[in-house]
Prior knowledge:
Helix content: 10-25%
Shape: globular
Number of domains: 1
Number of helices: 6
Amino acid sequence: MRPRPSSGWSFGGAEGSPGLDWVLFSGCLLQGFFRPGSCVQETRSGAMSRLGSVQRKMPCVFVTEVKAEPSAKREHQPFKVLATETLSEKALEADVYNAIATEKVDGTCCYVTNHKGQPYLWARLDRKPNKQAEKRFKKFLHSKENSKAHLWNTEEDFRPVPEGWVPAKEVERQNGKPVPDENGHIPGWVPVEKNSKQYCWHSSVVNYEFGIALVLRHNPDEPGLLEISAVPLSELLEQTLELIGTNINGNPYGLGSKRYPLHFLIPHGAFQVENLPTLKHNDLLSWFEDCNEGKIEGIVWHCGDGCLIKESGKELLTRSMEGPEAVVYKDQSRSITQAMHIPGS
């Protein structure tokens, strides 16, 4: 498959185009075209239509339980988290049986909303408790008398966050203040500035001067073909996306190289998963473990009420294993990057 540039880019640096230097900084690698696996279909009805937005921690489709036994997965953890075969109450309330199943992408979560009077990319940053508050919270979790909710002091218990940080939209609030989730975190966002060192790979996929972002999406002329295109940030407003690439999460998709790093965004819910088994624990477990279509990071169900329910293949396999000899999980090829060809990688 011969690579070719997306029609969304101008390589000549002409007036009104992003210019050659910025394109090359993103890696001369914008020419790669991708064909998703057979289990993935487009979910769009328009050019950049969307499903749900990730504005809080997503619950799992199955109920999990904690056992007071040493974890075989994490050293010094005095408890195990195990999967049950029971669908969670949240999943049932959201009518997960009639939800749209999409591929869960293995990257880092981002959000596009206005900042400084223009569309901006925001990075996910959860506000976490300081050491003393974390110790108290862990003691509460391990206590047998933890029927009541843990009491937080949001003014004193949490680490400082950068200027501009805001809590995610769906975070619960009490008296106007954000309430931590069941993990003791407050999900939130921080704006990605142009010259940010901490978020340099985030900033590599946007150009605020021209108001565009690098996005993997379906080619409108060739169904089933994916392309990296320059998309106006204004088309992505209030949407959450996943940033993937060479320097994100250990690069599970094998994108780019050290010399030519490649990063881009994928809208959440972009790829629908077909031919799923029934929503039974063992059937899903077998699908992730044995089927070619199941060689993906996981599944996110987009429910009719806007609720998002997830299940990670790796986590489901790990939680279902009983002995330490079974903890190793074999990483699998990802459907997004099947038949991938990227020059220079």
